[in-house]
Write a structure and sequence with these properties.
Length: 227
């Protein structure tokens, strides 16, 4: 893998939205020895399938898996993620918001120990979501939200289980833990990302994937509560 490359990997079905997201990423400050590439994945039935395709297409050590409606506003984003990864080789993945203990139902934001911050419009209007403040450079968590998931190791996304667009993020967080890596949320003086997703309407696939999550990881989720 090329440890001097950062890849921004996105599953795309809205070209205009993607180009706006890409515009923000293209204007980040890039360290002089780092190469940046953009990997656009189209016509996939699941985000896990799209992201696995992204892994195949890029040899970058550092991969930023992000939604097409995410706009990175922290100009030093690349510096910041590389610094965090350099601090501890056990850090496998970074996200903007997450929880230290995953509720038994698998719904991460219902936890009492969520950390991080992001601008988000899932209620229909944009707001700053502030969870608990990260005191140090980063806070280790059990799971992160999937709007943006930054990795320094390639671990396959579980498309054998998750064929839709829900709970893949909790799954991937737990897959990193299964492989002995830490998942963290960074300290943000101000928000790093805007997630302009619009109002979210949940369908049958949400509950189906939630049950798949519990079937596969239920024992691990419960074990995390006792650690």
């Amino acid at each position: 893998m090329n440890d001097k490359k950062v890849a921004f990997i996105t599953s795309v079905n809205d070209e205009e939205l993607y180009e706006e997201s890409k515009f923000y990423a293209e204007h980040l400050i890039v360290p002089g020895d780092i190469e940046v590439e953009f990997v656009k994945i189209k016509k996939f039935n699941s985000i896990t399938g799209a992201y696995n395709e992204g892994i195949k297409r890029s040899d970058a050590k550092y991969k930023v898996f992000m939604h097409q409606d995410v706009f990175i506003v922290n100009k030093n984003f690349i510096y910041d993620i590389l610094q965090i990864f350099s601090l501890n080789k056990e850090i496998g993945m970074i996200g903007m918001v997450g929880c230290k203990t995953i509720p038994s139902n698998g719904v991460w934001w219902e936890a009492n120990d969520c950390f991080g911050k992001v601008a988000d419009s899932h209620i229909g209007s944009m707001e700053i979501i502030n969870f608990k403040e990260v005191k140090d450079i980063y806070e280790e968590v059990s799971a992160i939200e999937g709007l943006i998931m930054i990795t320094q190791y390639d671990i396959p996304w579980r498309e054998d289980i998750f064929q839709g667009w829900h709970f893949y993020d909790i799954s991937h967080s737990l897959e990193f833990k299964r492989n002995g890596y830490k998942v963290v949320v960074p300290k943000q003086q101000s928000i790093w990302c805007i997630h302009d997703c619009g109002r979210i309407e949940l369908d049958f696939s949400y509950e189906d994937n939630r049950r798949r999550l519990i079937d596969e990881y239920g024992e691990e989720i419960n074990a995390l509560k006792t650690n």
